[in-house]
């Protein structure tokens, strides 16, 4: 049954309550749950984090909206807490990172195919190939630091090979801005797509910035720092495709609708019944938030929310492997570069990005270092590798010590 | 009896997705890495940082040198007391953390309906002995004029090493056997560390202190033996084989 944003009113805001115990629930199983359950958890945390961030920005610019925003925001805060807590502590930070990159690949690949605007579809494909490369770099690091196989996180849904090499993803700021959709003409799905991917990239950027200093190994720190820099570029790219002429209230409406849209997709496809119940609860709450935002919109803008929102939600994001699509894009578009807001062949790349990158990489690129000669293999590289050379007399020494 | 291992829907490993795995391997095989070399590149970057690194921290000087017992002062003259202070501080921190590890293990066993082969009373005894050892080292540190509340570098590094043990012991999903294995790692390290500390204490000429430490080691020997035995027994029973 499709949801109707104007008829399904969800749980009224005043009835949305949590206890601390509800906010800290048993996590998903890293070993037994489907990788797409983790993908949904990570994505929805990103969506909630953006809801909070947007709400603060909006409150700082709109005195009259501060109270309703604060009333909703504390619920968003608690939803974010509940959702993010579903990642178990048996995930090392690098393993969670692998999950983040799987989100960026699989969800962006679906969005690229759902996007009706061909230019924006190209924007998504461009970003997706960069995140695809990040998965490979982090997989090499996970193997070479912790001796673990990234595919135990991605569960064979996602290939682990180089994409557009991270070392050449660094661009001058002017080459990270894109054309935005037109708020009066863009399809509703276009607006939801942009918010979804921007939210995911933003939480990834924040996560990498927070995680980098938690590692003792300077190699891992450098790796996170280099990729976090690309995530900053991605946030810049994806926020620039959103029409900046949307009013604050229009943006608020779209944020709430996007939360509804994404939770709805989670509810439909979740394989873990306990997690599905969480998605259902959040969906119900978000429908309640949308009601509040619609009332504010009517009150302050004297406009009908139907001018901004579709009655029925577009088809949800499909949570399934996009291997064939990703491979095809990799084959055809790995050599694309950004020049201003457009995409060109690498031979036409501008001076500014080349110079910026040359300076930044002048003492080497951590992403290249960690994956030097790396090819993923089940188990992983040492399964096919050679033993390290050692001298026979060391073995004799060990006998003496014993 | 606790069942640590259950057959289920573990989705890791390539056997869960034989067709997809084959596709992934075929692509990985024909896709070269984008940068040449091997893991030595990581070693080189680490080496550069190691060469440029400063120490993780220093040994705090004794609070007041005049506060140091004169006999202790005499004994330490001509030696490097900072090494001794560092290792004493490390033992103190480990024993204090050990109390908390046992607190978590006791909770795990008490809450687990099947953890019965581990006598909780015995765990409480071990926990209290860790506490006694903490106090013993505290007195020892004071007796040489050092500050037992300071965190020494070895204490800090041991704390880093122990973070995983704390995680295992406090994760509600881990079994009693998982937690016994974590405690076993702690007790093995603890046992070796007491032996080293006793040797160091003797070489520092602190014979009375070394004797006290020997008593602690005897109790630690007992902890180790029991934890090892309970762990072994649980694994064997779980596997339905006789020990």
Automatic annotation (TrEMBL), chain A:
Domain of life: Bacteria
Protein known as: Rubrerythrin
From TrEMBL, chain B:
A molecular function GO annotation: ferric iron binding
Domain of life: Bacteria
CDD domains: Ferritin_like
Signal peptide as annotated in the record: none
Protein name per UniProt: Ferritin-like domain-containing protein
